[in-house]
Amino acid sequence: MQQRITFYERQKIEFYLRHKQSIRNIAHTLNRNHSIISREIRRNKSDYFPYTADIAQSAANRKARRTNTRKLDKDKQLYRYIVEKLKEGWSPKDISGRLKKHPPLHLKGKYISHEQIYEYIYNGGRDECFNRLFHYLPRTKPQRQPRYQRKYRKKETIPDRISIHLRPEAINNRDEYGHWESDTVCFGRKRQALSVQCERKSRYVAISKLDDHSSQETIDAIMGQVETSSPRLWRSITFDNGTEGAQHARLRNDYKIDTYFCDPYKSWQKGSVENVNGLIRRYLPKRAEIDKIPIEYIYAVQEKLNNKPREILDYLTPKEIMEKIQSGALNS
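The structure assignment produced for this chain is given below.
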């Protein structure tokens, strides 16, 4: 391995260039490979100023002082915390925000941005077992990329359907608790599914296991969730236009829960539950056979999501918010 170019050699290069010597002649005089001399000159001159030894040496000194050690390579305590939370399903933004707003005692005063975490993950970051860290991201993508559009589906007729455009502003603005979004997450070819509800303001998630996609199964599952929690926490539910919401009138008649429906092909109008569906896919991919998965595992997934800090909640968790509502610390 050849020794780095010295300041004396740089002075020689400057002198010979001023006297119109060729790069090959300079390299021969200094007993260097001509490609090394060529690269040295190219890096330290431009169309606006000639090569000088002083400028070249200053640039070399700056590069020598650089350390490419990343923060997570230096701080093992911070590294272990981030890997632990990635494995629990937290996103880099969740981790960064939680550290800033509600840090654990042993990491108080330490901070790392979510972009630094992403940079570490996508540039070879690994856990203690040398697994690539992108496997622990909510979407498990090997690189960051935009979403693809969903395919359109045939519009279905739903009796007594009330448009989302008639929904009160208090719901649209998330001014109060008790307003939910509902969706169905499907698996395999056996019409197996989960019924998922997300409370719009607290982002609290409720998941129920379904035998099929039918509207009766879906509404029965939602009614089960209503009956096992405080009725005042269920004021309205927003559905998409799938047939699983066709029996929504039962919720209106039996529990006085208002129901609303998105416009066709505009699932983004209930974006909270759509986001939750993507997180569920991490633990339960499309190929999963739901009928073989115990209900305890479904509840464990629900708990993971409800114990995940959210930026919109100032990095508190949905479960912490729901506990405050039920204790009366927050008005519902």
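Interim note for the steering committee: The CA atoms of residues 184 and 317 lie 23 Å apart. The chain has three domains: 7-65, 71-136, 164-327.
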